[in-house]
From TrEMBL:
It comes from the Bacteria. InterPro entries: NifT, NifT/FixU_barrel-like_dom_sf. This is Nitrogen fixation protein NifT. It comes from Paraburkholderia kururiensis.
Length: 72
């Protein structure tokens, strides 16, 4: 799915999914490097982001994969 990653006015990372008209803050990253790893949105969605250079400028639209929600 297409996801736009950007920094808001306070410097926090957010993800916007146009198809769902959903904008949520990124609350955690599975690794220190966001690109090529997993991020978790405030609504609980987990997204796998593509590999990109660490100095990639924002905002950027990428093709991300939503991982299935896990039952605890």
């Amino acid at each position: 799915m297409k996801v736009m990653i950007r920094k808001d006015s306070k410097g926090a990372l957010t993800a916007y999914v146009p198809k769902k008209d959903l904008e949520e803050p990124i609350v955690s990253m599975a690794s220190p490097q966001m690109w090529g790893g997993l991020v978790t949105l405030a609504n609980g969605w987990r997204l796998e982001l593509p590999e990109m250079a660490a100095d990639t400028t924002l905002p950027i639209t990428v093709e991300a994969r939503r991982l299935a929600d896990v039952e605890d």
